[in-house]
Hints:
Elements: E1 2-3, H1 5-25, H2 27-51, E2 58-63, E3 67-69, E4 74-82, E5 88-94, E6 100-102, E7 109-111, E8 115-125, E9 129-132, E10 135-141, E11 147-154, E12 158-162, H3 178-182, E13 196-202, H4 214-220, E14 224-229, E15 235-241, E16 249-250, E17 253-254, H5 255-272, E18 276-282, E19 286-293, H6 296-306, H7 318-328, E20 334-339, H8 344-357, E21 362-368, H9 372-377, H10 385-407, E22 411-415, H11 420-434
Parallel strand pairs: 3-12, 15-18, 15-20, 20-21, 21-22
Antiparallel strand pairs: 1-11, 2-4, 4-8, 5-7, 5-10, 6-8, 9-12, 10-11, 13-14, 16-17, 18-19
Amino acid sequence: MGLTKRLALLLVISAGIILAAGLAGGKFYAIAACVLVNVIVLALVIYDIIATPGPKKIIPDRELEERMSLGHTHKASITVRNTSDVPLKIEVRDDVPEYFVRGASDGEKEIAPHTEETYSYEIKPVKRGKYSFPCINIRYPGVLGLIRRTAKYPDGRSYRVYPNMRDLTDYGISALSASLFSLGLRRVRANSDGGEFSSLRQYVPGDNYRFINWAATARSGELMVNTYVPERNQYIYAMLDSSRVMNTVYNDVLILDYGINASFLLADYCIRGGDNFGMELFSAEVTHFIHADKGPAQFEMIADKLYGVESDENAADYDNAMAAFASSVKRRSLIFVFTQLFNEEEAVRFVTAVRKHLGRHLVCALTIGDPRPADIAAGNGTDDAYMRSAALKYVMDRKKISEILTGAGILNYDTQPDQLSLTAVSAYLNIKKQGIL
């Protein structure tokens, strides 16, 4: 409980009355005025304390998504109910955890007896994990405005920050062709050599002659072709490197978080498309392994694993990670490996592990590069010859890495961090379209 400006003003007025009494009637009047004024002020303060409802008469409740997305702005609201018999002017402030950016909140509001008001503010998490909000802080003046009550309301609920599931348009998915976008999501005519038979229809110019159904053509007297949908119920895995190479930062976001976001979006696409999706997270050791499955429960399990993943300072052991995968998964699968390869030696080590352990599977390497050296190598941003030479070597090394992976028969995409999600989904849809799994 604290004092207010109104009480301070009242004390100043009281001092003026005492001073005036002393000047007009001497010491006796000054003492009498002091006693009387202080008694009145004290009585008013005591009345304010008694008449002002205590914190138990105020019931706050936070409304906030218990599962939030990294880097997204979420709306939080606190509903405050006044169960007392007097109106109260209540100010609310919510304590937020570290790694949350809070926007401005509503100011003081008057809440009538036995009614409620809602205070809103925006909040943005900047790091994945599990968090607790310490408490809700309430402050309000007394009925006479001479005192101010404060109270803290602890909240035992926990909130989780998950990888970023932005709208698909945020990744430019809408820029993909309509047929590519819909592969795995709805039935479409396949332009590939594979897939599951769907139906018959009349031939239109541009159809592949290999899909002509001659028996149906003979029966109907019109040229008929088979239509296909991409094969479903296939097994897709993401192998996510969480070693020290993923601990660098691009645009204020960890490379690991870009990989997690891409894995999260890829899982959503695969599961919604009818495929089974699983994951392996590895560094020097395999830290998590989730067998491929489908359905909402599988997506929830993956989300629960990903939200708390942290990078470490160990080097990635590709041989150990791929050996562990091979021992756990016998069925042919499509494996997306999210990692960073910085030189030819690492690329050779990666290829050796793939050939040794994942020969039966289809491997697609998604290597994450930094676009800044390419800009420097092109002469943008600096005139430093040494910097340009180092940047040029970085660019050439990445080209050699891609050549090594391609030469080993490994599908590979070298992409910058903020394009990783789009690249992963595009690669998945292209592979489905081609029917090469």
